[in-house]
Amino acid sequence: MRAVIQRVSCAHVTVFEDGQLRETARIGRGFLILLGVRTDDTEQDARWLAEKIAALRVFEDADGKLNLSLTDVSGSALVVSNFTLYGDCRKGRRPGFSQAAAGSEARALYECFGRLLADRDVPVQYGAFGATMQVALENDGPVTLVIDTPRTQTDSARLDKASEI
Q1: Calpha distance 9→141 (Å, rounded)
Q2: pLDDT digits over 57-74, tens only?
């Protein structure tokens, strides 16, 4: 899995349906998480990523240091599916998406990730899976991070350990 995380003051998602724009989700302080699911991702990847994101210390403490996590500041998460995070642009002018998981598989892990994040006391809102969305945010910092779940044999042990948490 791949997540692009932006620390936000607020964010919302709007979808065009039945000839009208409709807001489907909104959060205040927290993270906007663009989430890409890869063809070989598993629930262990979702668990590892949810734990990592919930515990990331990227909010300022009283001394202005990045020492507080999303849960420490009672922040929320807006999770938006984004298969284009696995766009391969190395050849030609059109990205290839062969590494991105198919819709039903991606949706299951996207929803699993959101539930696992909520299990860590993070209020979660969702974008509209598979829809064309307009995502608006007020970036705070800016603080933007890209996190990929572990892929190597050595990192598999970390995934196993994360599943015990």
Answers
A1: 9
A2: 999 999 999 999 999 999
Q: What is the pLDDT of residue 113?
A: 98
CA distance 144 to 5: 6
Residues in contact with 40: Cβ distance below 8 Å, sequence separation at least 6, in sequence order: none
Q: Where are the domains of the chain?
A: 2-153
- The DSSP secondary-structure symbol of 48 reads H
Share of the chain above pLDDT 70, in %: 91
Residue 141, CA distances (Å) to 29, 61, 75, 125, 155 in order: 12, 14, 15, 22, 31
| Residue given tokens 């642009």 in the structure block | 89
Domain 2-153 has CATH 3.50.80.10: yes
